Amino acid sequence: MRLSRRDVFAALCAAPALRSASPVPLSLPARRNDFHQLLVPARIENSPVLWCELDSGGGGRLIFIDAAKAAAIGVQATFYGQSAGPMDGTLAPDLRTRVTLVLSGLKLSAQELVIKPDALPGDKEASIGMLVLSRFVVELDHESPAVRLHEPETFRYSGPGRAFPFSIEDNNPFTSATLTLRDGRRVAARMVIDTGAVGSIAYFSRSFAIQNKLAERALASVSDTMGRTACRIERFALGALGIDRPVVHHFGTPGFGGKNEPDGMLAADFLRRFRVFLDYGRGRMILEPNRGYTEPVAFDASGLRVHRIPNAPDALRIYEVLPGTPAAEAGLHASDLLVALDDTPMQRMSPGMVQEALARDGHESSLVIQRADEVFTVRLKLRRLL
Q1: What domains lie within the chain, and their CATH numbers?
Q2: 16, 66, 176, 340 — which has fewest CB within 10 A?
Q3: For 79-90, how does the pLDDT look when each residue is reduced to its tens digit (9 = 90+)?
Q4: What is the DSSP-derived secondary structure letter of residue 303?
Q5: What share of the chain is helix, strand, coil (3-state, %, to 5)?
Q6: What are the CA-CA distances from residue 299 to residues 1, 200, 266, 291, 303 (Å)?
Q7: CA 316, 115, 195: angle at the middle one, nearest 5?
């Protein structure tokens, strides 16, 4: 679904006020990004429409925005707080204020907003901790795409999904999952349900990986240059709902959002395979498989990672080249610019589209690369890494 800013702004302004105990959920317009996240339009104070991720692992009733965006919409800090990212081992001071958040048909006053010094990753303009909406049953429909807010008093689920209990600890929802490793051993894990964790089925902490010898008991593994290891395991499941031969990741450094390490995070590439209902009042998550449920989990076959950089619509920057991979063997460097892939210019491709194209085992891809003032072509023979 593609909505113009004008259409969304009109919907925000014209939508009726939310009526309590209504059997009809409040439906928020949404779009799906490359990372399998649902972004919803919102206004902070009197800002233009901002596309915001809904982060179930956001660590509280918090809204996050970067300093440049805060300055652009005229929001200034009024007090201090402390927060951390998912890979940070300690909390760090941050700047905060209280704002009014407006979603379609819903106005939430005195919400705590955290102003981060660095830009938020990906294409989101702000991040809304899902606990801001915890008085509702929050439905995430990844196929439509749509986000629906149900009144808990009238919410009755009667579909084919399965319910899993969760508890709120350290402002995050925890549930249980099971890993099946190479030797057939089944390992239980306590997982944060985290719609903000992208790029994997699940992430596991260093302590969990060491305790359960995750790398050794995986079918295969490959490390990156950022302290993470990707592992393909036999199965990852919540109860009877699971994925065979998925790729999961574990961290090589301690620390998990500045708190005691949980076992891991249930991430967006798992959750996008379901219609998800987060029923905070009843402490349960309902997962209803969608058409993506049975999709096999692909993994990059090139060894390079790319992202969009500001003010550069004609290229994507290579920010990582894994050693011992086709990209490294072809002499590609982190900081090279990718101008075209298989004759398709980068104006017409997103980072997610590039990564999908570079996951085709056995395919030979042609990359146009810019390095400083030099432009040249590289051919990569893609091969399975996991």
Answers
A1: 5-150 (2.40.70.10), 162-289 (2.40.70.10), 304-381 (2.30.42.10)
A2: 16
A3: 999 877 665 666
A4: -
A5: 10, 45, 45
A6: 26, 10, 18, 20, 10
A7: 65
